[in-house]
Amino acid sequence: MKVAIIGTGYVGLPTGVGLAELGHEVVCIDREVYKIEKLQAGQVTLYEDGLDSLLQKNFKSGHIKFTTSMSEGVKGAQVVVIAVGTPPHPVTHEADMRYVYEAATELASCLHNNEYTVVANKSTVPVGTGDNVESLIAKNNPDVNFDVVSLPEFLREGYAVHDFFHPDRIVVGANTDRAREVIREMYKPLLTLNPQCTLLCVKRRSSETIKYAANSFLATKIHFINEMADFCECTGADIYEVAQGMGLDKRIGKSFLQPGPGFGGSCFPKDTMAIDFMALQNNVNLSIVRATIDGNNKRIKDMATRILEVVEHEEAEPCFGILGLAFKNGTDDCRVSPAMQILQEILHRKPKCSVRVFDPEAMENARSILQPYMARVTFCDSALEVCTGADVLAVLTEWPEFSELDLAQAAPMMRHQHIIDCRNMLSPQKALNLGFTYRGIGLGRS
Ligand code: NAD
Fold it and tell me: How far is the CA of 122 from the centre of ligand 1 (A)?
């Protein structure tokens, strides 16, 4: 099939590359010239495991092409996937829909009335957006023959390529049989590879809701285990033993029971806020979602306090060594990263402090976010280099290599030997034996 993808970000690019690998003819469209130029040179614009080689393979074979031109990109496409951002509105925190509606408006003028096109919305959008996109296209191009479906994306950053080829389910929200069958055809090669995968066909509004409900539930699960971790720290229990005991119950499940500094990234914070906004508009009280949002925001601040208070009485001008900047391992994405939020909180609350930072993939993205604090930030080339002159070492992202940090080498490089391990990556026993103070998450001392 001929498929066009509007938006080549963390969703659009892996989706485009994945569909090309399935044998479709894909054209990816983005308005950012620098991204398209890089992609046209066969280079990836973001870090995702396995994406680089798959992109090169399909680029060389001609299965995937890139353009900034909407009209050129959607020419002859049976499916046009919208995968543009829906960031939170800075004031109301509702989903900012301007990119979706701009894309739909431009698309309308590029569709031809003699061809049937399915416009598939992969962006996470408020319930009812499918109706709005449908009206918008019909208003701007009354003769065009099309349907709008909701096709929410469930990939995890860091595993985007894996998740594309091994989805738990594909949800299709379509109001016509014809559109549903076109999407089924597009995913046919994937469903053949994964016979256990369900293609769930639902009403368009149900599909739009599924995405928000799923993300709100997952965010709540993370917040729940984080609160349990706080409880364990006070009661002398071990959160890992507690999570294992809970997770073996099939009704609960093992995933999303890892404690940490709070959830972040470009989806959970914005999607919980967006559904909370929609609920308030409809006079519905999503009290659990609200508690999760507020609790997580407080947790980020509490983590900064944990790090700051270790050296409160020791150093007037402390130096904090920060391991990890991305919102989780396996990605260079720093959007609403707990690590970045904690770091910014520290820099804001302690104007005389300095920080040394390292992340295996996210240095470039972090650099642009940390511009206002540049004079106090040292970008290091390794985890060990972060330790030079630091008073506290804080682990904020769960990159596996951080667990290999040689603490015996790190200890004499530091001014004071304190560790705040928000990801429980380092060995508490090793740290204590070397004279560090060590505080992890949910590890009660009894
Ligand atoms: P992103 O910001 O990484 O990428 C969006 C891209 O769209 C950008 O490259 C931008 O230049 C481009 N764009 C915007 N308007 C355009 C237009 N009119 N024409 C052409 N290109 C345009 O965003 P993302 O992380 O890929 O997220 C996209 C959507 O998918 C969001 O709604 C998000 O909530 C949802 N989602 C994201 C993830 C994730 O893990 N990132 C997972 C599931 C769903």
Answer: 9
